[in-house]
Amino acid sequence: MCWIRQPPKYYEGKVQYKYLGTLGTGTYAAVYKVERLQEGGPFAIKTMPLEHATIFQAEVGTLQRFPHTNIIAYVSHFRYKDVLHMVLELASYSLHDAIINRRIDKTTFLECTAMMAAGVAHLHRNKLLYGDIKPQNILITEQNVVKLADLGEVRHMVKPLDRAVGSESHQAPEVTMEGKYGLPTDIYSFGRTLEDMVINTLMEK
Question: Is 106 known to sit in a ligand binding site?
């Protein structure tokens, strides 16, 4: 679990945020729901300790340089009390939540698949490997728009990679066997995510 705890209020310069709740925690990051008091509207804030600044900066750079309708939108970032903060658009729930709660019918399955594919294709056109496609990293907004999130594992594919990235449950065989791999590994992980949707939702209706 991530060690970071959020105060009731904190600041990005003169902009004040109010902590509204915890959305999720992990080994090196935590995500919180916040309200921007001066301008209104809820946002998500992803926090990381300074020791993970390289991952943080890489994700910020990807979100800034390669925005897309089906990638979570970057708002701003700042440092507050030795913790790095990334302000992002707020989604309603994850694809994992949708699968668990049986929210996916055939139409929703097709729509989610198309939007996920559009986000991944955008990254691949820019020679970027997502590296961690799984239901937990796919978010859905209040308007039912699917967004790729948690882009900390994104890699620029100037040459094949040989260091494992992503979650073991959705890794391609060439990653787990520590061989050379590239953009096609995202397609394998994409397929495993579709399999999760089919097995856990469609086939049980």
Answer: no
pLDDT at residue 1, rounded to an integer: 43
pTM for the structure as a whole: 0.84
Q: In terms of C-beta density within 10 A (0-12 exposed, 13-18 middle, 19 or more buried), how is residue 40 classed?
A: exposed
* Residue 21: alpha-carbon gap to chain centroid: 18
Half-sphere exposure of 22 (CA within 13 A, CB side): 12
Q: Are 181 and 156 in contact (CB under 8 A)?
A: no
Span 169-201, pLDDT tens digits = 555 555 565 666 678 889 999 999 999 998 866
Number of H helices, E strands in the chain: 5, 11
Distance CA 23, CA 45 (A): 9
Count of beta carbons in the 10 Å neighbourhood of residue 156 = 12
Strands 128-129 and 138-140: what pairing? Answer: unpaired
Question: Which range (52-56, 58-62, 87-91, 176-180) has the least confidence?
Answer: 176-180
Do strands 15-25 and 9-12 pair parallel, antiparallel, or not at all (unpaired)? antiparallel
